[in-house]
Specification:
two-stranded antiparallel sheet; alpha/beta; 23% strand; 11 strands; 9-stranded mixed sheet
Length: 247
């Protein structure tokens, strides 16, 4: 059961527009829209008090009518983080989890791991996930975000580049971590982050989490097994449909 002294809510930002998969949240997977799969998977997390879908699109709200709690937000948010912050601003909660709306096969234990990380370490402002890099092709792929951590498991840097660089071992991947973009924030950290201007490293790498590091916000990194399937392309969508059919 959720810890009443550390209330946690998950918010799933859902935007209808997508250049590669138009209307992505409503894409049919096994007879249900993708956003419903994400919502139902998130509900299975045991550390949460509440799960909310945040959208500015009535089509998404209508698809979830009678199924999920939906919060209508402004349409001009530059990122999902800002959309989550708008919802969380008026909630009585200590922790907010930003769950991407394109993870129909999300393991709810990943959400629980992030909430527990914040409950266990009060010095962390936020927490995120990582998995071990599988091979050299993955570490060299700029679409795969890598993260390096200190000895306490706190993020030192996120990059699209191959980090860490193994000077004496060509092609080495030891210690490399693939960042998984699910975040848990303390409420005050999320609201502060959403109020800050983009930072130089964030703009260079196009990675919003660098704004937190550049402003001294400690990010705990929880290492887990298995990267959740993220639906970014039509090919990803077909893989998700096949996987749901097998389940």
């Amino acid at each position: 059961m959720p810890d009443s002294g550390n209330a946690a809510v998950a918010v799933i930002p859902a935007r209808y527009g997508s250049t590669r998969v138009p209307g992505k949240p409503l894409a049919d997977i096994g007879g249900k829209p993708m956003i419903e799969h994400v919502y139902r998977r998130t509900l299975l997390a045991t550390t949460l008090d509440r799960v909310i879908v945040a959208t500015d699109d009535e089509r998404i709200a209508q698809a979830l009518d009678g199924i999920a709690e939906v919060a209508m937000t402004r349409a001009d948010h530059p990122s999902g983080t800002d959309r989550v912050a708008e919802v969380v601003m008026n909630l009585e909660t200590d922790i907010a989890v930003n769950v991407q709306g394109d993870l129909p096969l999300l393991d709810p234990a990943m959400i629980d791991a992030l909430v527990v990380a914040l409950r266990m370490d009060v010095t962390l402002g936020m927490a995120t996930l990582a998995v071990a890099v599988a091979n050299r092709a993955e570490i060299d792929d700029p679409s795969v975000v890598k993260v390096v951590c200190d000895a306490a498991g706190r993020a030192l840097y996120f990059s699209r580049a191959a980090i860490p660089h193994h000077r004496d071992t060509a092609g080495g991947t030891a210690g490399a971590l693939h960042h998984v973009g699910i975040y848990a924030y303390r409420k005050e950290t999320l609201l502060r982050l959403a109020s800050l201007a983009p930072t130089p490293l964030e703009c260079a790498e196009k990675l919003e989490q660098l704004r937190a590091l550049e402003n001294g916000i400690a990010i705990g990194v929880v290492t887990v097994e298995g990267t959740p399937l993220e639906v970014d392309t039509s090919e990803d969508l077909e893989r998700a449909r096949e996987a749901i059919t097998r389940l």
